[in-house]
Design a protein that fits this description.
Length: 631
Amino acid sequence: MDYKSLGLKVGLEIHFQLDTEKKLFCDCPTEFGREKYRFIRELHPSLSELGEIDPAVEFEWKRGRKYEYIFAENDCLVEADEEPPKELNREALLISLAVAKALNMKFPDEIYVMRKIVIDGSNVSGFQRTALIAKDGYIEVNGKRIGIQTLCLEEDAARKVEERENLVVYNLDRLGVPLIEIATAPDIEDPREAEIVAKRIGTLVLLTGKCKRVLGAIRQDVNVSIKGGAKTEIKGVQYLSLIPKVVEYEVLRQLRLLEIRDELRKRGLKKEDLDGNIYDLTEILKNTKSKIIKNSLEKGGKVLGIRLKGFKGLIGKEVQPGRRFGTELSDYAKLYGVGGIFHSDELPAYGITQEEVKKVYEFLGLDENKDAFILVADLEEKARNALRSVLNRIKIAFDGIPEETRAANPDGTTRFMRPRPGASRMYPETDIQPIRVTGELLKESEKYVPEPFEVKFERFVKEYGLSKDLAKEMIEDIRLSLFEELVKKYRNVEPKVIASILINDLRYLRREGYEVDRISDGSLDELIGLLDKGVIAKDSVNDILIELSENPEKGVLEIVKEKNLFKLSREEVYKIVLEVFEKFYDRISEKRDKAINIIMSEVKKVVGNRYGSRELYNIIYEILKEKGFIT
Ligand SMILES: [Zn+2]
């Protein structure tokens, strides 16, 4: 695809959780704690400064959900919104100033804490506190200047742990953890470039050594638009490597939706002519074999439908791999608690027969060859709300693409989350005094200004003996500061071995499908510690990592015991090699040139990964030499 001529514009919003001692507006630690009790709240939208209700806020409010909060032993009354916030955390402030400086940004005279309305329940108070720290900076990437619009310091939202139809459960442990939000200008013009820019910004923040290192500590949002399209905000892209795909698929989606708009125009269809009525089709489908419909009817539900004159073939049109226009509509329906929709382009299917499809067409007075319909089976009110939501989405299709906030799926496709918020959702936090940006403050922040990439790179290669590739990857990795800690702590393990475990082994296992990102820093620390003391051999590291990815709460020593992975002594291995030598003496004599390989594979059967391959090789070599097999 020629992204230039499509007018692709990509902007990034990257969030980094800071590893500060305390939360942003209270003295609670930023570590997770055990549950103490739960409480329930409902939220209502309040008017913004401009006296308007934000569309995203209104949307959440209409869903009418309740929120349950888990109050943990590490939390205080600030998180529960029972007490006003304390002063802005100074450590977090200094770190953000340092990052802003590294991004060539300009500082205001005073920093104000603002309240940003959020009503998905992720903040107990109904707003998120955020402070603009700096603006108008830039970063040079491959000779091109990418603008950095803003850097904000904000409190992280509560952590969603469960979502039921009318209730969302949040854990307050994450609420208030300091978060740096860096927003680039829409200067990125290519999907690959988006990944490179995200990586460069990520490296810069990681180099401060103050970024948290748990899964989800860095979260990327990607804003995508093309000429004639709409600005779409895609939230929660977990991996950098997924960014190009997310951008590519979003461009594809926007192009396909524009094609649908053009086709609607070509067919002479108009928004005003769309039938907004909802029809009851329960009678027609009351004896259907479709399990979904049968279940709904048994619960006292109904089958409701809408008429889409002239839409034949359009609902089934693919907009992203494996996702159709119908899937987009279904996302809108699902927000009202229904399981999904049936549309005529995919029927007969799901137990709905050709005969039944025909009857529905007849009942709705539609032409099977030209028109389409959509059905929802559920309790009447839910089905009605869902279909209304679908109708509203279809109306937008006549004009093009709606401005949406979407969520990234693991395969790079996206799904609708909510309408894009407007600009009118900020107002000042009156509980906190503005902070003057003085020369003194800026000077103090200098201690956090990151060691430049080149300096660290030199050090890793020269001092630690890492290859250039490994050094580069280690610096760009989320576990950079863990690496530096481990190198200092464990002198018996070579730095390049530690780096290789953190980079190569984890990457290999991730590719094999293991969820290695669930492994905590504490476990990795313990693992390297056991290597350091010679309790385990390097060869059993992968076995342990696999077990940890499946049971991250297990202790490493516990796993070593369970799987009997204790490193064998040289004497034990020596003895085993001798035994193998005797047992296979005839074979080895016959094939002298293969002697090492034969013994190696036989010994491995006994020793497994409990001894290093290189050391084992040395023992075999030694014995064969003694026996005169090698001269
Ligand atoms: Zn607190």
